[in-house]
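Progress note, project year one: complex with 2-acetamido-2-deoxy-beta-D-glucopyranose.
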Amino acid sequence: MAVVKVRKLLAWVISFVMMTSSSYFGDAADDHNEALGASFVFGDSLVDAGNNNYLPTLSKANMRPNGIDFKASGGNPTGRYTNGRTIADIVGEELGQPHYAVPYLSPNSTGKAILYGVNYGSGGGGVMNATGRIFVNRLGMDVQVDYFNITRKQIDKLLGASKARDFLMKESIFSITIGANDFLNNYLLPVLSVGARITESPDAFVDDMINHLRDQLTRLYRLDARKFVIGNVGPIGCIPYQKTINQLNENECVELANKLAIQYNGRLKDLLAQLNENLPGATFVLANVYDLVLEVITNYDKYGFTTASRACCGNGGQFAGIIPCGPTSSMCQDRSKHVFWDPYHPSEAANLIIAKQLLDGDRKYISPMNLRRLRAL
Ligand SMILES: *[C@@H]1O[C@H](CO)[C@@H](O)[C@H](O)[C@H]1NC(C)=O
Ligand SMILES: *[C@@H]1O[C@H](CO)[C@@H](O)[C@H](O)[C@H]1NC(C)=O
Ligand SMILES: *[C@@H]1O[C@H](CO)[C@@H](O)[C@H](O)[C@H]1NC(C)=O
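Model obtained:
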């Protein structure tokens, strides 16, 4: 039975890759077609499509071999923290966008291009403003919403107030992939959290995060966002970086990091239920990235991977999990066989499996409806 499942999955992945690589961009009309819709992408390095290229920051991915499998750039780095497409890229393609959402900070994010969506994601960013200080610069979620407020006015100018409102409420999906850095590059950092962990219990820190996120989502709602998908925090205790610095075995994960993620995720679920009730006309969909990624990590061989612990590109320790991916990194033989591209981020092969579940999966991983249904609302 397992073999049949894997075959089916592989067949799907192969047909999906062939389908998207051959037709994507190929016959896209230049003029904006409103039926295609837009995605406005908020978050961290899991979805950054190049914003950090324009920031003086220590968190950057616009260097080889990042992007080596990204067809639209001919394998050149774009600022994405993976070898190919991010989950947001894949979901955007599947929902019919003819172009990837442009990075807000890129010179291309002007004129009609923004009607296909804008990407505000930033490596190192978090819900909390202080998150990612270690990188010197990054766009936190508060700033990302400020930027959307600017985009919002540009859309008014392009479409007129009434059409703009309709476009945002009906044709646009707002995805938010954030929270991991609030733990990895804030609360769990021994030195830089200066006191956060001493003065704040996990409960209080998670409480703070949820309150900030509630404000951020409510601000987006006031700016006419209605269709939301919010990812919970993945099993951050299982990434090669955490496994390496904590000197774990192949199939172990760091308990504290995963415990914090689970705690936050429980509160996030309640928050979204609350917002679904309190904000008329809005739909908040929860993407259960934690369970989905843990399933892929636990049963990696069923999904065609040979390892879920070792980074494909990176150096240091047992799992190549200390030094980020760059020109001097060693790289694995077969990129499609690693769940993790680098010490922190999934490979495109893993992103394809995750995106497929978010698009078409059931309530175990995406609730109360999947993204295909959210789009059709
Ligand atoms: C911006 O547009 C130029 C010209 O159309 C293109 O070559 C370049 O790849 C675009 N950059 C991004 C980040 O999309
Ligand atoms: C958040 O940080 C930005 C700089 O990254 C700063 O401009 C802004 O004032 C800060 N916001 C709050 C609420 O502290
Ligand atoms: C958007 O920006 C305007 C100023 O241009 C401000 O008055 C308004 O409060 C902002 N809205 C949100 C939701 O941040």
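The chain has a mean pLDDT of 89.
The chain has one domain: 33-288+366-376.
No further modelling is planned for this target in the current period.
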